[in-house]
């Protein structure tokens, strides 16, 4: 067990009530709905996934674009690596980052609004959330644990999916079906309905380091044909996260697992609790870069 796993075990064994928030790429590594019961056996009091947070992020993006219609470029990214690259290498592009928090941040805000006494643990497909995003917002998230680290902990404790028959568990917070594709490259642009604001040729969906550096270079030179850039660091989006246990699965298979989860949620009205924006409209999801 590493220091993060030990810190989480200590928290779960304490008197604190602990909320687990699963990044939306979770179906690649964890079985649904069994993961809810498995995490409760590990010691979490509540378990949520982030899709309602992603819906609120989309709502704030839309609001920002409506209120700032004449901006030259709009960079939309929930990825801390992208924010870091822009801050370090392209400071002139910083003004174009849409000042809205990530779905992780948004969902913690939503859960904390309802359960202010809970500790928040984010389950992440990468360490960038821990190393770059968490320190930017002190007090936001108590622990970030990666998919790989959590898988090892479940294995070590002998917690298996077989003990949890299908349908026994639902998430403890709101969900939104259509934002379940958020971890797939282009999921943000698609679900935020940016085509209502930009022509198709003005929208750029890009992932992978060399690909986005080229776009950023063109933007820096003022010659980019794009106005709205949906950008993620990892190839394929967060489904390509380096700390996914099953990271060697083909990209198509990872996408399939995420889409299958979405399709199952759409078909099964008991699968969760659909989140309407009125539940979270009062919470500020803005930020500064
Ligand atoms: S794109 Fe990669 S680095 Fe960025 S948040 Fe997703 S998994 Fe993390």
Descriptive overview:
The longest helix is centred in the N-terminal third of the chain and has 17 residues, at 51-67. With 289 residues, the protein is of the alpha/beta class. It contains 10 helices and 9 strands. It is 38% helix and 12% strand. The structure holds iron/sulfur cluster (SF4). The site of iron/sulfur cluster has 11 residues, from loops.
| Sheet/helix structural class | alpha/beta
Shape: globular
Identify the CATH homologous superfamily: Fe-only Hydrogenase (Larger Subunit), Chain L, domain 3
Q: From the 3D coordinates, which CATH architecture would you assign?
A: 3-Layer(aba) Sandwich
Question: N- to C-terminal separation?
Answer: 35 Å
Order of helices and strands: HEHEHEHHEHEHEHEHEHE
- Unreliable residue stretches: none
The CATH topology turns out to be Fe-only Hydrogenase (Larger Subunit), Chain L, domain 3
Which terms summarize this structure?
289 residues; alpha/beta; 4-stranded parallel beta sheet; 3-stranded parallel beta sheet; 10 helices; 38% helix; globular
Concise summary:
This protein has 289 residues and is α/β, with parallel strands linked by helices.
Secondary-structure blueprint:
Elements: H1 3-12, E1 18-22, H2 34-42, E2 46-49, H3 51-67, E3 74-76, H4 80-89, H5 103-114, E4 119-124, H6 128-136, E5 143-146, H7 147-156, E6 174-175, H8 187-191, E7 203-207, H9 209-220, E8 228-232, H10 251-267, E9 273-274
Parallel strand pairs: 1-2, 1-4, 3-8, 4-5, 6-9, 7-8
The structure holds iron/sulfur cluster.
